[in-house]
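Re: [help] complex structure
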Amino acid sequence: MSAQADMLAVFPESPPPDLARTLDLAGYRWKAVSGTDDVARNEPAAGWAGAVVACDVDPDGAWALCRALRKRDVPVSPLLLLVGGGQLGELALRDDLYDDFCLTPFHPIELEARLRHQLWRGGASVKPDVVEYSELALNVETYQASIEGRPLDLTYMEYELLKFLAQNPGKVFTRELLLSRVWGYEYYGGARTVDVHIRRLRAKLGEEHQNLIQTVRSVGYRFGQSRWG
Amino acid sequence: MLQQNGLVMNEQQRNYVLHTVEERGVRLVRLWFTDVLGNLKSFAISPAELENALEDGMTFDGSSIDGFSRVQESDVLAIPDPNTFEVLPWGDSKAAEARVFCDIHNLDGTPFQGDPRQVLRRNLEEARSMGLTFYVAPDMEFFYFEPPVRGQAPVVLDEAGFFDLTASDVSGSLRKQTIRTLEAMGIPVEYSFHEDAPSQHEIDLRHNDVLSMADAIMTFRLVVKEVASSQGVYASFMPKPLEGVQGSGMHLHLSLFNGEENAFFSAEDDYNLSPIAKQFMAGLLRHAAEITAVTNQTVNSYKRLVPGFEAPVHISWARNNRSGLIRVPIPKKGNPLATRIEYRSPDPACNPYLAFSVILAAGMRGIREGYELPAEADANLFQMDDAQLFKLGIDQIPSSLGDALKVMEESSLVAEALGEHIFEWFLRNKRNEWRAYKAHVSSFEHDRYLRSL
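Output below.
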C-alpha cells in the first residue's frame, strides 16, 4: 500500500453519528461506503488506509464487506470493528476478517486509541502470509497452493474452502457454517454445494492426502487431526 | 461489475484466475464452448489477453460453428466463466495450459440463443425460482478400439492382442490413468468397471449441479479420448458401435434439492418418493417421446434402444426393472440424500447442455401442472405383446431418429426449452441426417436381398 494512503473506509453508508464525530474530532479523513461495489468505486488513488466497520446495524452486510476488503489484491488493513455485546459470538472463526474491535456503545477515546495503535502497527513491513499444515502450503498473497512442493491447481472456491479449513485445523465445521463463511450467506445452491466441493478437493489432493479433510458423520467436516486425538 | 441475465462476473474470482495464470506460468488459455450438436470447440488466447477477455469477452466469428450461423451478422462474444478456470493436467508442465468455459453473448451483451450453455442457464431459472437445485450423476459408457480405419468394422482391444500386454492390462491402465486425470480436474469418480461387452467401460461420476455436470461431461469425453490416444487407442462414445452386444448409454441419476433437503425424498411414501418426485417423473414420462431426439440425437442411437440389451424401450417406470425408462434405485441404508430417479435412455453422444435442458423442462412441467404418476410397470415388458402393452397404456420410445424428430417437431415443450433458434436449426440439421441415412443402402440389404430377389 502506498505510504500516502490516508483515507479510511467507513461502513455503513450513514455511519452512527457518534462514530462520524469521533473520527472527525480525531482528525481522520474518511469516506462512507454502502457496500462492496462502493469500496472499489470510491477508492482513493493511494488506496484505503484502513477501515472502520460498524456491525450492529446490518451484520450480514458488514461481514460481507469485511470479507471483500480482505480478499482484495492488497487486503485492506487495519480493519476495526464495532460490535454490540450480543454479537461477540459472531467474532468466532472470523479472526482473519478484522484486526481489532470495540464494543458498542464505544468510548470515543478508546476507539481513537485502538485505531491509532492499529495504524501504527500497519506501518511495519508486510510479509507474504503462508498457511501451512503438514505437506500442504497455501500462499495467501499469491493464491497458490502446493502439496509436497508440487503445485495444486484449484478453482477459486476450492481454494477459498481449503484455505478456510487449513486456517482452522482440528475443528469440526457444519456445512451451513462453511457455506456462510466461505461462500457468504447469499449463495444460492445450499449446503449440498459444500459436499460437492469437498469431494472435488479430495480428488485433487489425491489418494495419499485426501484424508486431510475428514467427514464427521452427521456433523460436517474437519481438516487435519482432531485436537483430542 | 458486469451483471446481466444472471451472469455475475465476480471480481475476486477474476483476480484469482489472473494470479494463477501468472504464478503457474500459464502460456496459453483455451476458451471452451459447445456447438449445438455437442462438439467441444476451443480457441486459444495468450495470458496477456485474459484480463480483457474476463472483463469484456472475446469477439469471434461464429458463422463456421454448427448452429451458430445467422443470416444478419456472425460475430458473437465469448465471455469466460471464471468459476470453470482449470490448469490442464496434461502437456508440458513448464508451459502450462489452462481452460475456461465460456458463455456466448451477442455483441449487445444479451445471451446468444445458439449457445447450448446459455440455453441450460435459462432452463435452470424455473427450478431456481422455486429454490430448487437440480443434481445429476451420469454413468458414462464407452468403448476402446484400435484406431479406426475408414470402411472397416471397429476392432475391439480385447480381441486385438494389443502389444505385449494382455488387453485387460491395457484397458485397465487406461481407465486408471483416465480417472486420475479426471480427479485432478475436479471431476470426482464414484465407480468404474469393465462393462459386459468386450472393450466396453463404464465410469460413474459423482453428482453435481447440472451446469457443472454438463461442463464436466464435455471435459470427460475429451479426457477419455486424449488418454486413449496417448496410448495409441481410440475411445468412442458411439451409442451402438457393435452389433449383437450392449451399446453405450449415459444413464442419468436425477434429484432436486431444496438447500440441504432432498426434495425427491419422503419418509411417508412406500417408495420414499415425495409428491414432487412423482410429478417430476410423470412429466418425464409424458414428454419422453418429445425429448428423445435431443437425448438420443444420432441415427445410431436408436440401434441401442432395442430389447435384449438392458436399454429401455418402453415409456414406463419401476423400482427394479431395467427394461423401463425410469428406474427408482433403492438407496443404500435408505439414505434420504441418495433418493433419486434414474433416466435410462440418454446416450453419451448427446449434447449434455441440451439434454439436461429438455429433461429439466419435462420434469418441471410435471411439477407445475401436478401430473399424476402412472402405475409402476414391474413386469418384464419385453415379454408382452402390443395388445397387452396398449391395455396397460404403455407407449414405446420412438424407434428411429425419423420418428423422434416427428414427435419433437410437434412439441411446444421442446421448442420452449431449446428456444426457437436451436429448435429450428436442430430439426433442420437432423432431418438432413435422417434423409441421408434413409438413402443409404446397407450391407444388411445386400446380404438379404441381392441373391434372393
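The interface with chain B takes residues 37, 40, 68, 71-73, 142-144, 151, 153-159, 175-176, 188-193, 196, 199-200, 202-204, 206 of chain A (CB under 8 Å).
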